Amino acid sequence: MAEKQLTGKVPREAIVMLAIPRYAPEIIEGYRNLSDLTGTVSDAMDELGLAGAVPGSVLKPTLPGSKTIGPALTLRNIEQREQPYKGAQNRTSRMAEIEAHNLAQAGDVLVIEGIDGISNMGGISATIAKRQGEIAAIVDGGIRDVEQSRSIGFPLWSRSISSITGKWRLQTVAINGPVRIAGVQVNPGDLVVADDGGICFIPRDMVEAVLKRAREISEGEARRYADIAAGVSVPELAKKTHVYKFER
Q1: Rounded to 10 degrees, what is the CA torsion of 51, 202, 134, 115?
Q2: Which residues pair with 55 in a beta bridge?
């Protein structure tokens, strides 16, 4: 297969991977069918010794009620050294999420390690992402033009909303390399699971194990709700608290 034609917005060496690992539809659907998506996944990750959950109060959703499950397409921004007015006068932007959009496939989630208080992604970028088939973006930093991303149904989770553009202030230094999101290391292709409760980043080699345990927890929770609806007494409910105890 011919190599992907690049935009040239970043040096080729800044693109760590041209293609990220992706998942079979049945894996994505398995996560989608879980009850209390990120709560259940977070519990499963705890039992498996994985630290990868970020609260929804830290990275807040722009479209409440959204659920996102897909592989991480990663990007890292840093602050430019030059003063913003120089870039504004010269119309020179060093941001390059456009290259990430260029490499995206349907179902990907753009994950940006960015800068807070400055926009790392705006309405045009969200619109391109939507057209390219990306299903959401997670931004540890600021975003803007939220009315545009909402109007097209493109969900974002971000640390802040800011009208201050990153075009003259930020520089993209890596695409599809490791990033840190709210203290969690995320590698390209890790599975992103997000809803109103927060975000879980699941390492690539643990996706199936987490899904297996999450299904068991979800089934146990369903039994608990059924017992509550059936009128089982509180003392009896208390005895069944650990009906889905983890067995290694």
Answers
A1: 20
A2: 198
CATH of the domain at 185: 3.50.30.40
Kindly state whether residue 88 falls inside one of the protein's structural domains: yes
pLDDT tens digits for range 11-52: 999 999 999 999 999 999 999 999 999 999 999 999 999 999
How many domains does the chain divide into?
A: 1
Domain of 116 in residue numbering reads as: 12-210
Q: Let me know: does 61 contact 196? Beta carbons within 8 Å.
A: yes
Question: Would you say residue 225 lies in a domain?
Answer: no
Cα(69)–Cα(193) distance, integer angstroms: 5
Task: Give the predicted TM-score (pTM) of the model.
Answer: 0.93
Residue 19 lies in a domain: yes
CA 216 – CA 210 distance, rounded (Å): 10
Q: Which residue has the tokens 């935009």?
A: 7
65: which residues sit within 8 A by CB, 6+ positions away? 196
Contacts for 184 with CB less than 8 Å, ≥ 6 apart = 51, 52, 53, 54, 201
For tokens 């030059």, name the residue. Answer: 82
The answer to whether the beta carbons of residues 132 and 99 sit under 8 Å apart is no
Q: Is residue 222 part of a domain?
A: no
Q: How far apart are CA 77 and CA 99, in angstroms?
A: 13
